[in-house]
Amino acid sequence: MGAEGIREASINYAPGYSENLAELLLIKAGIIGATGYTGIELLRLLAPRADVEICAITSRELEGVPVQAHFPNLRGHLDLQFSAPDSGALSQCDVVFYATPHGVAMHTVPGLLGAGVRIIDLSADFRIKDIALWEQWYKTSHSCPELVAKAVYGLPEVNRAQIKQAELVAVPGCYPTAIQLGFLPLLEQNLVVSERLIADAKSGVSGAGRKAVEDYLLCEATESIKAYSVAGHRHHPEICQGLNLVSGSPVRLTFIPHLVPMIRGILATLYAPVKSGLSVTIEQLQSIFEDRYANEPFVDVLPQGVLPATRDVKGSNKCEISITYSKDTDTIVVLSAEDNLVKGASGQAVQNMNIMFGLEETAGLQGIALLP
Amino acid sequence: MGAEGIREASINYAPGYSENLAELLLIKAGIIGATGYTGIELLRLLAPRADVEICAITSRELEGVPVQAHFPNLRGHLDLQFSAPDSGALSQCDVVFYATPHGVAMHTVPGLLGAGVRIIDLSADFRIKDIALWEQWYKTSHSCPELVAKAVYGLPEVNRAQIKQAELVAVPGCYPTAIQLGFLPLLEQNLVVSERLIADAKSGVSGAGRKAVEDYLLCEATESIKAYSVAGHRHHPEICQGLNLVSGSPVRLTFIPHLVPMIRGILATLYAPVKSGLSVTIEQLQSIFEDRYANEPFVDVLPQGVLPATRDVKGSNKCEISITYSKDTDTIVVLSAEDNLVKGASGQAVQNMNIMFGLEETAGLQGIALLP
Amino acid sequence: MGAEGIREASINYAPGYSENLAELLLIKAGIIGATGYTGIELLRLLAPRADVEICAITSRELEGVPVQAHFPNLRGHLDLQFSAPDSGALSQCDVVFYATPHGVAMHTVPGLLGAGVRIIDLSADFRIKDIALWEQWYKTSHSCPELVAKAVYGLPEVNRAQIKQAELVAVPGCYPTAIQLGFLPLLEQNLVVSERLIADAKSGVSGAGRKAVEDYLLCEATESIKAYSVAGHRHHPEICQGLNLVSGSPVRLTFIPHLVPMIRGILATLYAPVKSGLSVTIEQLQSIFEDRYANEPFVDVLPQGVLPATRDVKGSNKCEISITYSKDTDTIVVLSAEDNLVKGASGQAVQNMNIMFGLEETAGLQGIALLP
Amino acid sequence: MGAEGIREASINYAPGYSENLAELLLIKAGIIGATGYTGIELLRLLAPRADVEICAITSRELEGVPVQAHFPNLRGHLDLQFSAPDSGALSQCDVVFYATPHGVAMHTVPGLLGAGVRIIDLSADFRIKDIALWEQWYKTSHSCPELVAKAVYGLPEVNRAQIKQAELVAVPGCYPTAIQLGFLPLLEQNLVVSERLIADAKSGVSGAGRKAVEDYLLCEATESIKAYSVAGHRHHPEICQGLNLVSGSPVRLTFIPHLVPMIRGILATLYAPVKSGLSVTIEQLQSIFEDRYANEPFVDVLPQGVLPATRDVKGSNKCEISITYSKDTDTIVVLSAEDNLVKGASGQAVQNMNIMFGLEETAGLQGIALLP
Which of A191, B79, B92, C332 is the most buried (most CB within 10 A)? Predict the structure, then answer.
């Protein structure tokens, strides 16, 4: 059975969602490329769920290996082996997650969609609507540009309604999630000079994935901080695309990512000059953010004076935001913190799945951050 | 209502434990001294549970402060303020956890027991049966030695039956848990020279608690490893007491703890010479451990050749064990890894609570380790 | 003998500085409050020198304790005990370093100056010329405001000539050093909108000193990043004072410091919009920085495309700078990296001493960064 | 000029070593394979020296690249490019260091020796006298077994006289240095049961080298500790070979290495049961160690009660040792700490060079540990 049946069911029954029906709604999920950090995080979030059955985890090089041999934290939690991507098991799923490097999903997504499988792609393949721009940044030609237009950008705080109906969701990148959530209220309210935005973002090393690359060795990356990709990062066009959709004037963004000696977490420090002629107070700004995210289960606007630390959201699906304003410089500073592997990737992917299948949006995502 | 009613209920109904009854069994829990790392970890484990109501969290200096202001990871998960220890709320609880420094619990435990409250003490006050020995190590006189005899040492893998009935449980220390679980099968089977045991243990810094002490500053503790308390550590008598209970001959243990530059985790590397005249094989040893822990939900004997790392159990209640044997030296090496704040403290406390109240022993403790 | 004799000698003989004279120039140095990180770093830099004799290291609470018992890395390198601050030994020195908390030096500096001792103060007591502003930020009244006017701000790249003659040097703070060195060329050349400067600065935890404060425990500070003091940091007025001295128009600076989970290092990411109407190229900018620092032994302008990492300067006195410019946003981004304890504190203090006493400016400061 | 001339000169003149002669003694040094951590550490130690000229640094893949482009900490300290290993420059050197993986040096050492070049090999190629044993552990056949017999094992605390005359020095491994220095006095004095030695060793990640291997990524190695190679580590035969040379009875050693989440440092915790019938006191043991190492510039026997931490020797060439003894278990515990890249590799290599060329043994090796 593909997704159609399930979706119909969920659309019909979700409003009167009852315990009995929940048992009927057993979502069959597949994961492609689940050997990296977003893959293992998907498994951590999905394995305990009673309403999701993980049917297939594919990896060409690990075919036949028990998943828990590769991911020792899953010992006793998941009795499944890696299978080959072309085993046919994927087309039996209701939903398939792509936790693959960029440029992989586009080759097999059309086939799975044709088989009625709904797709949640954690890679960048379907995030950017401007195909030429995507091809410039990802240095390959897109194999199914027509699907890009149909794909829904999976930022629930913006696109919840479309996600509900989507067959193909492009999960936002880690930086784009933190940065867009921080800037959106300011741009929606037309408060800041959109041509002068700055995002100084700091990421833990897991953002680089589980690749055996010298730069990410402990001895290279710990006890140090550096900026990277200052001449241009692939998340830049994705962020601008999202911000331009709500901004009254064109967005120009200086985006400088930094590598921080820790495993998880992104902190984005966002700077926006207030529009000339406007007069704002910190109380107004605080209200604007609180109102904007009042009904968002995973965006937590902190009280004035409380600042986020990435450890406060480690392992959780929350994005914590705090707002500061200085009259002296007339600049608004927004701090936005998330776990790059959860709200910045796999948690958000699961949040999308919950929305798509009419489940409680917070199902399986209410884990408390591991502190300390 | 004190513990008696609940206990009766649980004893009666647990075998036929049904969803409806589960709702009746709402355990009212209090936590004393919940401002440190074992306290916050108790809250992380208990707050999400539907069958436990956290009624009181006491802290003299934080009275009136919302718990989530002190522990930012709990924002949105727990709507409660710290209260004064003497507020009376504690005696209304079914169970009270002490997450206090050593020497505190003994002063108020008698009163709460008298009020029918069952006690789970994470401190050392009731762990050591030999009062004189306790007083020597903890450098104070014991205020209720008569209760020490009644206290049950809360190592479920040894004392499950007694824990079920206990009114006062002394939760084992972090080192004692990892070390006893690693040595027990060898001593029970009388395989090793009990006078020549060595435990070389490595602990993350959270084992030192959340005290503002210079030695545990990041700049003092990171990027370094050292041994400490080599002339004698307070966990030494506790470990020996437990091992002696199962050993056919007196235990003599060299115990050297080390401070490792990480937050969580204990790895105990245990060395035991095989008894002269005995001939063992690694296959036998592997079987002995697997059999010993076959029904233990939280002791995971790894397959031959797989070694534990503390990150594999970070945030989980598991103790992972692997066994190595070298014929050349006739020495058995056991590796035992746990999260010192979970199986080494708060998780084990909750495991005890589950047993005491007739719940599923694994309830609320099946979280998957956060990896990476 | 006080500083006068030495200074005269150095002024006379430095140009023809010969090996024989070097032996005559044995500088007698004292250190007040040498129990923290800037103190230990001063000792690491000064102890090996043949031309400096460390005569007194004072600490009221450690009086009589051998320095190497407190600082184990100095075992075998320094045979000296801590003495009381009022022992009289300090007034026999040629130079005294203050490695004390803010508000301490001002009380005893006048006396030592009167005894002919030259002073190098690593604290903030003499950095800010506007006494009222200083008192507002340091929350105490200044006990010798008249000396503030006479004090020389010890940034050699700006004040080398005055430092040479100075009797009292105020060593810049760690953030101010990295940030001023990064902005100075842009402001001197009048290239940027001085009212719209942003400094997003990231510091290792040693910047907080060796204080037993909960926030800086390993378990609180590692595996996390956060901003702090967003409403105003005490280094803000110091930075603005320095920048305003060279800027053609008033400086307004948004300064957001962050705490990074590592011991040493500051990375300042500096954002400056190009003045409207000006047209700049990255080649021009690169030249401006290279020219500005061509003769500076401790400012290293990196080639285009090479970015600094704090580990590249760990333990060294260098400040590494790289410049980026994006036409799209018309914003210049300068990255400035230093070891906060060396170029940001003790190394810079020694550099000042070298200048004051007519020694080679680089003497004792050419250690290579410890990498990895 | 090869080594012969220099050696002769140094033997003749070293006793009357004067400043003038020092200038004559300019040692021409080459480094093969200097792209890893022992290579960079050699450069950090050699680049500042006036008596050593680094003539060639070879790397096939980096030929033509400036060394300081690859090692940013060397910017401004070393003006040299990587050259091809076969450029001929090496045979012009007085001494050549091999910082290559195991199995490389043996192929070209014979040629360089023939050209009169003295060799200091940091790899394992010439450490183990038993060729069959070496071939078993390093899984290749030895290409010049006849040279193994002539090679001197470069542990100055044992072989100083032979090192002085050596043409080929095999620098000990990192674990072997720390462990042998800790056990030697006990075995030399025949105090312990040599068949029951245990070495529980903990190493920072730099011990694994600068290889892009998944296991050593920051996200895999930080915040965790684990044992590895428990079934046998290649340093085991090397350690036993050295210990057997001084032991009155055969050595049997249980050696368990562990990976610690830090860059540098080895701490070896050594356990040795006292021989039955012997009676020892801690005072005797302390004296035995202090006497044994009284004249050793780089072995520091700590006072009773002071324990080593690896950070106390970070970047320095010291091995710090402390001794503990418990009458209860009759077991001696020795703690031995070093920086694996310095005393455990490159510093020890330089110490050997100093001895070989008649220089001060401590020349260039008196850097103070970087603390914090």
Answer: C332
C-alpha distances in angstroms, C22 versus C16, C52, C139, D163, D363? 10, 10, 44, 36, 21
Residue D233 sits in a domain of what CATH number?
A: 3.30.360.10
- Among candidates B40, B210, B371 on the partner chain, residue whose Cβ is nearest the Cβ of A73: B371
Express each pLDDT in A156-171 by its tens digit: 999 999 999 999 999 9
Nearest to D253 by CA among D201, D211, D291: D201
Q: Specify if D134 maps to a domain.
A: yes
Q: Would you report the helix, strand and coil content of chain D in percent, each value rounded to 5? A: 40, 20, 40
Contact call for residues D353 and D6 (beta carbons, < 8 A): no
Judged by CB atoms closer than 8 Å, whether chains meet at B271 and D271 is answered as yes
Residue A253's DSSP bridge partners are A197
CB-CB: which of B210, B223, B312 is closest to A223?
B223
Number of structural domains, chain C?
Answer: 2
B305 Rama class: left (phi>0) / alpha (psi -120 to 50) / beta: left
Amino acid at site B192: V
What are the structure tokens assigned to B212, written together?
A: 């503002």
pLDDT tens for chain D, 372 residues long, are 333 333 333 333 333 344 444 445 799 999 998 889 999 999 999 999 999 999 999 998 899 999 999 899 999 999 999 999 887 899 999 999 999 999 999 999 999 999 999 999 999 999 999 999 999 999 999 999 999 999 999 999 999 999 999 999 999 999 999 999 999 999 999 999 999 999 999 999 999 999 999 999 999 999 999 999 999 999 999 999 999 999 999 999 999 999 999 999 999 999 999 999 999 999 999 999 999 999 999 999 999 999 999 999 999 999 999 999 999 999 999 999 999 999 999 999 999 999 999 999 999 999 999 999
Domain assignment present for residue A350? The answer is no
C354 token code pair = 């070298």
The mean per-residue pLDDT over the stretch A40-56 comes to: 97
Residues C49 and C43: their CA atoms lie apart, in Å, by: 10
Check CB contact under 8 Å for D368 and C73.
yes
Residues D129 and D193 in one domain: no
Contact B126, B106 (CB under 8 A): yes
Mean pLDDT confidence for C209-232: 97
Q: How far apart are CA A257 and CA A267, in angstroms?
A: 10
D-interface mutation test, from B206, B224, B264, most D Cβ less than 10 A away: B224
Domain range holding D236? 175-340
Sheet holding D253-259, edge to edge: D226-227, D253-259, D197-203, D266-273, D331-338, D319-326, D299-301
Domain identity same for D140 and D185: no
Per-residue confidence (pLDDT) for residue D115, from 0 to 100: 96
Q: Given the cut 0.95, state whether the ipTM is greater than it.
A: no
Q: Do C44 and D223 touch (CB under 8 A)?
A: no
Instruction: Compute the count of residue pairs across chains C and D with CB atoms less than 8 Å apart.
Output: 84
Say if the Cβ atoms of C217 and B218 lie within 8 Å. Answer: yes
Residue C283: phi and psi, rounded to 5, are -65, -45
User: What ranges in C151-261 are assigned the alpha helix state H?
Assistant: 156-165, 174-188, 218-221, 235-246
What is the value of pTM for the model shown? 0.94
By C-alpha distance, the chain D residue nearest C38 is D372
Nearest CA-CA distance, residue D252 and chain C, Å: 34
Rounded to 5 degrees, what are φ and ψ at B248?
-75, -20
Partnered with residue C267 across adjacent β-strands are C202, C337
Residue B168 belongs to some domain of the structure: no
